[in-house]
Specification:
Number of helices of chain A: 12
Order of helices and strands of chain A: EHEHHEHEHHEHEHEHEHEEHEEEH
Oligomer: homotetramer
Radius of gyration of chain A: 19 Å
CATH class of the largest domain in chain A: Alpha Beta
CATH architecture of the largest domain in chain A: 3-Layer(aba) Sandwich
Largest sheet of chain A: 7 strands, mixed
Number of strands of chain A: 13
Number of domains of chain A: 2
Helix content of chain A: 25-40%
Distance between the termini of chain A: 34 Å
Shape of chain A: globular
Strand content of chain A: 15-25%
CATH topology of the largest domain in chain A: Rossmann fold
Chain lengths: 342, 342, 342, 342
């Protein structure tokens, strides 16, 4: 049994990690850290965990956590985890960071989009951007994995194979729709039930911080497309559906593109390529990513469509998948459960 | 007082018409027709109307309806209203048709997209496509107004002025998100609560029947852009948000485009041009259309974003607005009420 | 035209008042006061009101408001409005208070349930508890109307007539289910979308502050039943459904009880007595209250069931109805609109 | 590995069974039967199961199913499973029936409430009513387990211990609120999204078929209280919250009653007794039942409150728990997963 800890266990990504780790056959939880709620019973922070978790939330003591853990998940806002991660790595503990700090390889871009200088630029180069379907080898060997953002995950999985085959013209237009849990657990009038029920709205069109992360992740394919990224909030708790519109550079039809995706992910247990259209609910509470392509012969445009659970493949599920690779487990260990439907 | 009737009064568009007409100061309802529920009390079909409507649903007797009505609204599925409309017009009664039969001027296109030959091609030429903000003069004089589809309405209002100024390259990509009431009131597993709560899904991508209607309506601007139309179902009852992505043909910035829209709709009471981003809930249960533009300098792409209530400006509200023009009333008569929020 | 102002115009009850007042044919708005958002455009606080309201939120200047207003609505939290109301009355302006401060006639009970001494006990005796269906004469003459709480309104309308006829044994058990907007507009994790979607939960069972108000309001019937009041939060924005369980004291059947209710409200335009079961959506965005009774012969128990919109008949709608009486208007003036459905 | 089959695998209870069985470490699925969709791929009926289930839905061949299965789950409407169950038992296959046919021990009561004569009254006596917390011994030995209804499950767990201690006066009033999935997967306007979003409504007040089942199940405690049962539909997919109001027969306070419940379920892994109030979301997608008691000293009344997932502990979860007992597995085998939150 490996021992793991979660720092930031009172947020939604942290809570989802606890849920997955609880059922994982090869790990046990050492510490659950929630600095602002330290000392509170875990099942007071997460009533769903009554009888499943008997302990308390811990305060943040990196040394102690490092010594008790083979790996630590950090799930904190931008900037908040950098110093902790340095300490953990210095103690020889491996880290999967669900925050944004180690995703962008270009610290100048980080400074521009996040409005702050990076506190540990020397670590940035070492961090491995962790999409297991694309970077498994590097993840296995990594000390520090930057767990991708929810939007970049689904967009990369939808487009990477098509880009590698030179089929995607630029710019790409990504129109993405997310559940509200992506906005986190802090109280805000903008995410209150009364303001959101029956409401659909765009936000941060062209200015969302995931934009450079999407472009960097797509560049991994060998091309460097610009992306016009338009996120939206849908009146639901979980799920992202992303439509990635592009001009096909070759006269390749819909059936061929779908076949190409299917081939690209033949060895990827969590990617499901469909002939039909994805919907978020079919991935609810799972680590699956459902994909398809539609080509519109009339207009000469196409769209690669992907659906994930933003807290699953978009955050905690993928983090566990990365951990599985780092520990040499089966990728699917602890994650091979059916989505909850309906 | 003018006398009006509604044929198809047990569906969502029909019910919404009754709601608006009930509060209208210058009309009274002659007949509410719902052939399959004829004889049932109106407030049994619509419990919300108890005490407001004391009558019963009528069966379909065009002669009788015509003789009692100055104007008739028809809200029936494709094909079902054509013959009735012929009879009503022959009796000298004016008609606003909320169905799709008289929207497409090209009967060959109608046959292709609707899978049926048109039963009254000679009437098609006479029908006026009724977006009051663009076709007020023709609507005032019309015998037969084809009330536009929900998607074409919001897309046209978002793009028409920009097209006229030659700012919009083609193809245009329209990613639209609709509430479930757009699918009508018939029972279907696909629109059941359990299948849709927490679910977001695309449908009919590139194949939706509103595609040719959108292209025809945009062509009114003097250009003929192709449109890749991708509709989606959002887990909410009412509302459409449409994002219309395009390549600006001139180096015109966001502020100028918004100013241009504002100028175009200076005399249009129901179009609200925003600096901020529209959201569907701000138009709930109203006849308003909220619009803005976002230009992404990084990628050289732009999007015109519009929000409406699909049953309001997207159906019954616009139908009443058309009726107001036809009767010489103020456009806002009976429609100048605040959206319901939250 | 009468001139009215709203103090507390940035909360949900205040916003709903603005919506109703906007459409009212016999009043115009003098001031909209929102102290914490003074100077902001009304349509920035309420995007739904764009084009309908061009002014700004005002700061709280009681003298100025009084001199410009024939009547003022106050919609503030417990304690916050008392001093303002004293000033307004002293200036000769009539007041409808949507807050809880003048509802309880017994200031000792107020102190016990609200945890604070009343700041103007001498005014309490003068305040008229404003359920128009029961207290129309006193409301017409009142300087100060205490607009009832949402729960007490629907429970009183459901039980009053049955109590007067001596049919209701005690204690009464009220199991009520409310939409989230009843919790107000302040940001709170407890009312966030992610925590509430798909969730149903009780709160303040036996301890809710509306308990003494319900008992006082029912005592108006001449009996003084104790009430076990159990409120719940349902995953919806608006609406209350209340089930009031009791032991019938006489062998009166369901049909007779329904007939009795119907007779009691024969002159009440906003109360709709049904043979079938009420549902909240049939009252959405309206001032209606739907009622019925079910008698269970097997167990010798009965339930009076009522449905309202908590922001309509449960707050702003009833406040406008009270204003109509105070100004000598028709009760239905500005309120006779159809509920929004679906 | 034991082999099990599911008859009725295209409904919600059947689908949930498949989800649980997929993750169960000690069983494998032999047949999934859905007569009306026989031959369709399982993942066409349940898109959530793509990659997890590669087979097809089978038609109903009891002989074949019996020979391939150690145990069969039947999840069919009233009356539809009786003959099949007879055949399965005759072949020596054990059965857990999720339908209502073998729950009521009194066939006269069955005939009265279900409007049909029972087709196999001789089997009724043999069937074991399967609440594992109360009837574990009999379940272990049973050939045929009648899996309880969702409402009777939560009401029995809430009240049984209190009844045994003689604390509960009659009649009991049960006000229960259910998610929509309890109504099944068939298309119906009554369960469509547009009719239910934002809606809360009672149904079958005093006449629901679970009434005699609740009374029978409570009678197991040695008392025979009458129950006034009032179910409601809440706008959510899963979850039941039941409030069971009663008059305490002894002066036992809230703390003692909670302690008593805690003692009664000390050995029951899936029952969680809380000091705070239950909410449905904390049990989402799990087999847990959360309970508490509130005593109102003012009125001398109390309520036992329970929350479950209607498809979990209210159907498929409990069925798997029953199977675990029948096979001699740990009760928690395959079920010890965290609820999904948020």
């Amino acid at each position: 049994m490996k021992r793991v800890s979660v720092i930031g266990a009172s947020g939604y990504a942290g809570g989802e990690l606890v849920r997955w780790l609880h059922s994982h056959p090869e790990v046990e939880i050492a510490y659950l850290v929630a600095d602002t709620r330290a000392g509170e019973a875990v099942d007071s922070v997460w009533p769903s965990l009554r009888k499943l978790s008997s302990g308390s939330m811990s305060s943040l003591d990196p040394q102690e956590i490092a010594s008790a853990s083979d790996l630590v998940f950090t799930a904190l806002p931008a900037g908040a985890a950098v110093q902790v991660i340095e300490l953990l790595l210095a103690e020889g503990t491996r880290v999967v960071d669900l925050g944004p700090d180690f995703r962008l390889q270009d610290v100048a871009s980080y400074a521009r989009w996040y409005g702050r200088e990076h506190d540990a630029p020397e670590l940035v180069a070492e961090a491995v951007y962790g999409i297991p379907e694309l970077h498994a080898e590097m993840i296995r060997a990594a000390r520090l994995v930057a767990n991708p953002g929810c939007y970049p995950t689904v967009v990369t999985l939808a487009l990477d194979a098509l880009l590698r085959d030179g089929l995607v013209g630029e710019p790409i237009i990504v129109d993405a729709k997310s559940g509200v849990s992506g906005a986190g657990r802090s109280a805000s009038r903008d995410t209150s039930f009364s303001e959101l029920e029956g409401n659909f709205r765009p936000y941060a069109v062209g200015t969302h911080r995931h934009t450079p992360e999407i472009e960097q992740s797509l560049a991994n394919s060998g091309t460097s497309p610009r992306v016009f990224f338009a996120p939206h909030l849908a009146p639901m708790t979980r799920g992202i559906l992303a439509s990635c519109y592009f001009e096909p550079l070759e006269p390749v039809g819909q059936t061929e593109m779908i076949a190409l995706l299917r081939a690209a992910y033949a060895e990827s247990p969590f990617v499901r390529v469909l002939d039909g259209l994805p919907e978020t609910k079919a991935t609810f509470a799972s680590n699956f990513c459902d994909l398809t392509v539609r080509v519109d012969e009339r207009t000469g445009r196409a769209t690669a469509i992907g659906a994930i659970d933003n807290l699953g493949k978009g955050a905690a599920g993928q983090a566990v998948q990365n951990m599985n690779l780092m520990f040499g487990f089966e990728q699917t260990a602890g994650l091979w459960t059916a989505p909850v439907y309906p």
